[in-house]
Amino acid sequence: MLDVGSNVGQTAVVVLALTGVETIGLIDASPDALARAATSLTHSQLIQRARFFYGFASAEDAQEVAFFNDGFGAAGSKYSQHSSSSLVEHRVPSARVDTICDQLGMSPDFIKIDVEGAEAEVLQGIERVAEGGPRILVEMHSNPELTMERNVELILEQCARLNYAAWYLAKGERLTGPAPVAHRGRCHLLLQPASEPYPEWLQGVAQGSALEPVLRQFAR
Predict the structure, then answer these.
(1) 220 pLDDT exceeds 60?
(2) Which of 74, 107, 161, 179 is in the most buried spot, having the most CB atoms within 10 Å?
(3) d(Cα 150, Cα 98) in Å, to the nearest integer?
(4) What is the per-residue pLDDT for 80?
């Protein structure tokens, strides 16, 4: 599994503790957050199954990106207006997911993307990795600089390039346009190869379901 926008590693701890995921790669543009994630995974005795990459997952390698965050907060973003918190600008190196996976020695089956508005940019950096057909969970965001409607349009453009389909998880319906989610400030999409049907085991999972039984079902 690849966790793009891993922050302090909460997802990594839960996934490694409750599922059979062999290895998770944590990617974040905050060195402080990555350091805290490594500490948390060490204390949880899960560090052996984790790999780390500091940088901003994007469409290009070796670019300097403006990144706004408050150290450990989960609202760090390339958009200065994404959060009402007091954010500080940092300069962060960029890298494509394909390049990151080469460096980490990973071919992920599953990718989680939570990057506070830069979701489409992450997908632009995926080409070789997509050949393996990984499922991709995308937490979609909007902010004063990027509407949900526009963000979904960008995601669907990348899906078309990869021959993927996007599914709106709250309804279990395939998205062909932004209308079903245009009113949302945040939502979750599942991206997978266009030829694959919506996962049967997800059909009975309602929005707000308890995490542990769902993860255990996923692990099967």
Answers:
(1) no
(2) 74
(3) 25
(4) 75
pTM of the full structure: 0.92
**Encoded tokens for 1:** 């599994």
Percent with pLDDT over 90 in the chain: 75
Q: Which of 101, 151, 103 has its CA nearest to residue 130?
A: 101
**CA distances, 190 to each of 25, 68, 69, 214 (Å):** 19, 27, 26, 15
User: Collapsing DSSP states into helix, strand and coil, what is residue 164?
Assistant: strand
- Closest listed residue to residue 107, CA positions, set 92, 126, 129, 79: 129
Phi, psi (degrees; rounded to nearest 5) at 28: -155, 150
Residue 48 makes CB contacts below 8 A (sequence gap 6+) with none
